[in-house]
Specification:
This protein is an alpha/beta fold and about 500 residues long. The protein has 21 helices and 17 strands. The strands form 2 sheets. It has a 10-stranded mixed β-sheet, with helices on both faces. It has a 7-stranded parallel β-sheet with strand order 3-2-1-4-5-6-7, covered by helices on one side.
């Protein structure tokens, strides 16, 4: 059964500390290696029963030790096995050397491996611990395996893939399957790592849960287990205002489509009332295109001040199709004590003065959610965007802490981060979400949850997940309009 601990993403350096803590608790580390190698062999036999030969590629560290245990187990099962080693086996130490000496196999040089039809490669060269570019000898083997289309089963992580950032270090195997142990690393979920890992299996090799929990930290996969208890509960005795009134700001008459999709998605996500606040000249367009969504004329900051006099107006979405960046800055300055989703034009409006936005977010009593895609993130946080030493998770965490807002750093691997350091990586989004207007729908879902009283971080995380579910429901070839109508509240 899935648990919050199962959702944790553990940095490779932290995983090394977990291994050390296990040894200090009295668990022989070689026993962990033995179980890991056995798990790899079992996966290989289960998923590649017709392999003519298993080729185990080993490095000199503990990942290589796992590979030697797997090789011995495969030989004992009657499989044909070849082992190739990076470097000199005489340099192996500790448990990895014990595994090599107990394997009974002869290791050939890594560079001698020539892929053949019927091979299945078991990649146990580096795993998650690599922090430098792969050596040229391994790069040549990666190229040869890729060219030959030989299936790869990776141990812990495909060699060459950074376990913290999810990016190749010069080159990386593209695995069909990856077997990891106890917990996933960020690199298993961040792109392009998620694609390079293929199907991921997590094996319990016997490290106590108390040790994992003590080191787990605040980064996890986005899942209903994290936020479902924070969502509003359906009650028989309710009314539309209790379910929340969301205001969505619109742009001029020719640009109302984005706000309409935002508003429809918000209604579908459970907001009791959704009003599009638009320039008065856009009301005719809106009146003939809206039914359940209300519309109201709102031209300038004075109109907004009057709108805010009604205390039922507490949640807002600003940005989709808005257009007027100067007016966006004025509106943000008036919304400091509200809950607000800032998207698209409302983010771009502060590209030359991000500190002005951050001052407003941090000083205000409300809760802001920023939803930048890659380009918008770079406009607000150019230094973070350019820093290749940071993972997407680390960039989002730093940006959230700097701005004071909950951050939804969008993409195929959307990261949701809170100023207190919590972060989630989303995995349920289909590729069909990469369509114009998809972000407008997401802003509406998050806005609806905020309007219903959901805390900002949980509203953002739930909104991203519900957005992914709607994308799967709408199917391939969908438009953003289809997506908006496919939104459903969490059941």
């Amino acid at each position: 059964m899935k648990s919050l601990l199962n959702l944790s993403l553990i940095d490779p350096a932290v995983m090394a500390r977990i291994d050390a803590a296990s040894g200090q608790s009295g668990i022989p580390l070689y026993d962990l290696m033995e179980r890991a190698g056995q798990a790899v062999a079992a996966s290989a036999l289960r998923y590649y029963p017709d392999a003519l030969r298993f080729v185990v590629l080993c490095g000199g560290g503990n990942n290589g030790g796992d590979g030697y245990v797997a090789a011995r187990s495969l030989v004992q099962s009657g499989a044909t096995v070849a082992v190739h080693h990076l470097g000199h086996v005489t340099a192996m130490k500790g448990d990895a050397r014990t595994a090599f000496e107990g394997s009974g196999v002869t290791a050939l040089p890594l560079g001698d491996y020539v892929p053949m039809a019927g091979d299945v490669v078991i990649d146990a060269v580096f795993g998650a611990g690599l922090s430098r570019e792969v050596p040229s000898e391994l790069r040549r083997v990666i190229d040869a395996v890729t060219q030959a289309a030989v299936p790869v089963l990776a141990v812990d992580l495909p060699s060459g893939l950074c376990g913290r950032r999810g990016v190749p270090l010069g080159a990386s195997f593209k695995a069909e399957r990856t077997v990891t142990f106890m917990a996933r690393k960020p690199g298993h979920l961040l792109m392009p790592g998620r694609e390079l890992c293929g199907t991921l299996e997590v094996f319990d090799i016997g490290i106590p849960s108390r040790i994992l929990a003590a080191h787990a930290g605040s980064v996890a996969e986005n899942d209903p287990l994290v936020w479902r208890d924070a969502l509003p509960r359906s009650e028989m005795e309710t009314h539309k205002f209790r379910r929340g009134h969301l205001t969505v700001f619109s742009g001029p008459p020719h640009a109302t489509g984005a706000s309409r999709m935002t508003a429809i998605a918000a209604l579908k996500a459970g907001a009791g009332i959704v009003t599009i606040a638009a320039p008065k000249q856009a009301l005719d367009v809106l009146s003939v295109t809206l039914t359940a969504v209300m519309s109201s004329g709102l031209d300038d900051a004075d109109d907004l001040r009057h709108w805010l006099d009604d205390k039922r107006h507490g949640a807002f979405v600003l940005g989709p199709g808005f257009g007027d960046v100067e007016k966006a800055r004025q509106f943000v300055s008036l919304l400091g004590d509200k809950v607000v989703v800032l998207d698209a034009d409302a983010i771009t409006a502060f590209k030359d003065c991000p500190e002005t936005l951050f001052d407003r977010v941090i000083s205000g009593a409300g809760k802001f959610v920023l939803t930048p895609h890659e380009g918008e993130f770079a406009r607000l946080f150019p230094d973070l965007a350019a820093d290749t030493s940071l993972s997407k998770i680390e960039k989002a965490q730093t940006a959230s802490a700097r701005s004071g807002a909950v951050l939804v750093y969008k993409g195929a691997d959307t990261v949701i981060a809170a100023p207190d350091g919590r972060a989630l990586v989303n995995t349920n989004a289909p590729s069909s979400l990469a369509t114009a207007g998809s972000g407008d729908v997401l802003a509406g879902i998050i806005g609806a949850l905020l309007a219903q009283g959901t805390p900002a971080f949980e509203a953002a995380a739930a909104g991203v997940w519900l957005h992914g579910e709607a994308g799967s429901r709408a199917g391939a070839g969908m438009t953003a309009q289809d997506l908006a109508h496919a939104v459903r509240p969490f059941a």
